Amino acid sequence: MIDNRKLGRLEQAMEILNSRAKTWNIVTISRINGYIYEETMRQALDMIRCRHPRLNSRIVRYQNSLSFQTQETANIPLRFLKVLDNQQWQEVVCEEMNQGIDSSKGLLRVVLLHLSGNEQISYLITTIHHAIADGLSCIRLHSEILTFCQKIVSNEPNNSVTSLTSLPPIEELMPRWTKGFRGRINSAIFLLQLSLQEIWNQPKTLGFEKYVSIPKRSCNIIHRQLDQELTQKFVDSCKQENTTVHNALCAALMLTVARTIVKGQRKDIRVNCISYLDLRRHFKPAISDEHLAVLSSSIMEFYLIKSNSSFWELAREVKYKLEASKNHGDFFKMVLVAKYLINFCCIYPKKIAATVSVSNIGKINISKNYGKFELEEISFIGSNAFFAGIFAIHVSTFQGKMILNISFSQPSISQVTMEHLVNNFISYIYDICNLNCDSS
Fold first, then answer.
1. What separation in angstroms does the CA of 57 have from each of 71, 104, 108, 179?
2. Which residues, listed in sequence order, are joined to residue 110 by a DSSP beta bridge?
3. Are 133 and 32 in contact (CB under 8 A)?
4. Phi-psi region for residue 79, left (φ > 0), alpha (ψ -120 to 50) or beta?
5. pLDDT tens digit string along 368-392?
6. What is the CATH number of domain 5-160?
């Protein structure tokens, strides 16, 4: 079935990042108890292409225009690897984050890892173009792949796949005030407001330990987990303090970076934070979680961190500002201007986009059991070699355990520096939860 169309503005922005910086694609990682044969996975990937037509697409450039094209698309690439160490999946993820997607051939690739000595443990790692997916839909995609694997080993018929209709560009789903002449005026005003806030606040960042051009940058991952007890304490503390986990994560990141920047001095600094948000429930009608698409946006807010800043007061300030921005429709406006902001960062590669960023998809509501296969852990990470100097965290909570994947651009931030920051960040959360008191 032919399903060609031009890329929307947000989709174009994602392809700019992929083609210029091999970056901003989404890597999703599942740890599975149960041996998955290579042939089983290949059949499951064929079924997932029937389920999601956009996986049959590639991106072609014609007369300075980018389009999805479904003709001459290659099969989904699948690598089958055996690893010796239980943590070696992180090396594969790092490799995937630093390899761009050849979008002229396809938009998804897959790696299936088996652990030598314990072949019942498998790792499913997918890398997908951000123009056709976001974190939430990637998590759902893994659940569907495992469902198809279950059907295959159970000898269920393959003709039971229900194909979903491809969605139009996200801009076409947004409110009327974002379109046409009115939309262009709103975009221009919003860009001006962002620029003025940037000039007024001049937010501090981690900066560059070492500067290199965009093509020479690489991305790395640091993986951490909060056990079920600490995760529950964190959730309960946020409820008690009239805020959310996302707000608290933003506050903890900003305070961690602020402490690093001031180096023990008692002085105030200004920072900014990017929050990534799901848009599905903000469309009318709402979009189902079933669809594989980029249905997310971001909001950038600026904050003053004082020497005696209260953690929970800062978390509540994050909550207040995000709610106000949502009411103003800022997440829709960011979709409209994303391409301009990315082009600006390409023109000025020494520009650091933000102090910190948080992408938290919250509690994952997918099944744990798939017949012979049990999903033990699942998480995601965005490759962001392009965005140097940012403390960027990707959070998911599955089976009561919070999983944190931190991505960072090297050599702007070294491995040693980021390990130190992450340890301080985790300690911050631990202290807040276990001391049951506010931290200044």
1. 7, 9, 10, 26
2. 78, 126
3. no
4. beta
5. 999 999 999 999 999 989 999 999 9
6. 3.30.559.10
